[in-house]
Amino acid sequence: MKKELKSICSIKENFELKNFNTYKLNCTCDYFVEPKNVQELKELFSFIKSNNIKYFVLGNGSNIILPVHYDGVVIYLKKLNNYEINDDYVYTECGVMINTLASKVTNMGYSGLDFATGIPGTVGGSVYMNAGCFGSDISNILISATIYDGNEIKELSNSDLEYEYRSSMLKNHKDYIVLSCKFKIEKSNLEELKALVLERTNKRVSSQDLSHPSAGSVFRNPEGLSAGKLIDDLGLKGFSVNDAMVSFKHANFIINNGDASGDDVIKLIEEIKTKVKKEYDIDLKLEQEIIKWVINNSLFIAIKKSVKLTYLFFLIVLISLVDNLTFLPSTTVGCKLTFCVFLVAFNEKGLFWALILLLFETFFAILLASSF
């Protein structure tokens, strides 16, 4: 599969996603691919679909909870980042950061996107989930969206997307990929816009925990209620599962207070939901998306540890055999053994380099022996 993917677009194997999700969760994926244009995306999608390969589309990773490993292909669309600002609308591709675009449009004196200056997501992700804050959202400004459904490119109207609070029909069509869209804007008073953005920024800084990794609001607000207040009234600020913790600053934020895993975040979410249901008989709905895979995360970690232990056993046997042949002093054997152990323990490719070390030693030992 690697060869086929590489022939289509840029790929990375066994890729670390910690810096590609705002929770800063440790997660690796089998393949990380970056199509640079729509044509590459279409070829990639065709290959993935025809071979029934598991995948998900990644934007800024600001609304997702990742597992310790994703056993499939992660499609990263940040290279689709062109945009054009006109007098009454903005055309933008899916990989553009919506807060960056909103700030640029607002500073040019146009209203419409000003609510989004603090939303740390891509345009594609924002259209997908109907992102919003301060009483406005994407559904209020979207004119149309261009999507790829795996077979053809379509243009959908605002009504076609069936927008609801933090949701759209795209959530029920996981194979639809937002390619681009148009937002309506209008000329407004620049100074008033700047004052409004500054006021909202100050409010966000004072009320939200921006000093720890998180993915923003965890739960949707129940109709007429605040999810954060419900959680706060139960005294759950500071409640934690390992390093996943309910923020002291905003009860509807879960933060990574150190080295939390996706499992820690999910367990904490379930604890909160259970307590809210018991106390208020309210079922909190998750605003964030859990990215799943087929094997339990804990099992995957156990398998990785077992594989490393097998590597170490294999190395010990090899080192013993080689050193019996090369007649090296025991101190040298001990140093080399320690070095190889560290290679395997702290580097996924450690076995490869340890074997290279042993091959070089054997080669030079044979040369040395033949010179006598």
In oligomeric terms, what are we looking at? single chain
Low-confidence stretches: none
Distance between the termini: 50 Å
Radius of gyration: 26 Å
* Overall tally of structural domains: 4
SSE succession: HEEHEEEEEHEHEEEEEEHEHEEEHEHHH
Q: The CATH topology of the largest domain is what?
A: Uridine Diphospho-n-acetylenolpyruvylglucosamine Reductase, domain 3
Large-scale geometry: globular
Strand order, sheet with most strands: 6-7-13-11-12
The major pleated sheet works out as: 5 strands, antiparallel
Helix fraction bin: 40-55%
Class of the largest domain, according to the CATH hierarchy? Alpha Beta
Overall pLDDT metric: 88
Based on the structure given, which CATH architecture of the largest domain is correct? 2-Layer Sandwich
Helical/strand content category? alpha+beta
**Alpha plus pi helix count:** 10
Strand proportion, as a percent range, falls in: 15-25%
Number of strands: 19
Give a quick set of tags describing it.
Uridine Diphospho-n-acetylenolpyruvylglucosamine Reductase, domain 2; four-stranded mixed β-sheet; 4 domains; 372 residues; alpha+beta; Uridine Diphospho-n-acetylenolpyruvylglucosamine Reductase, domain 1; five-stranded antiparallel β-sheet; Uridine Diphospho-n-acetylenolpyruvylglucosamine Reductase, domain 3; 19 strands
Q: What does it look like?
A:
- This protein is α+β, with helices and mostly antiparallel strands and about 375 residues long.
- The protein contains 10 helices and 19 strands.
- It has helices spanning about 1-10, 40-50, 100-105, 125-130, 190-205, 225-235, 260-280, 295-325, 330-345, 350-370; strands spanning about 10-15, 30-35, 55-60, 65, 70-75, 85, 90-95, 110, 130-135, 135, 140-150, 155, 175-185, 185, 215, 240, 245, 255, 290.
- It has a 5-stranded antiparallel beta sheet, covered by helices on one side. A 4-stranded mixed beta sheet has the order 1-2-5-3. Strands 15-18-17-16 form a 4-stranded antiparallel beta sheet.
- The chain starts with a helix and ends with a helix.
- About 35% of the residues are buried.
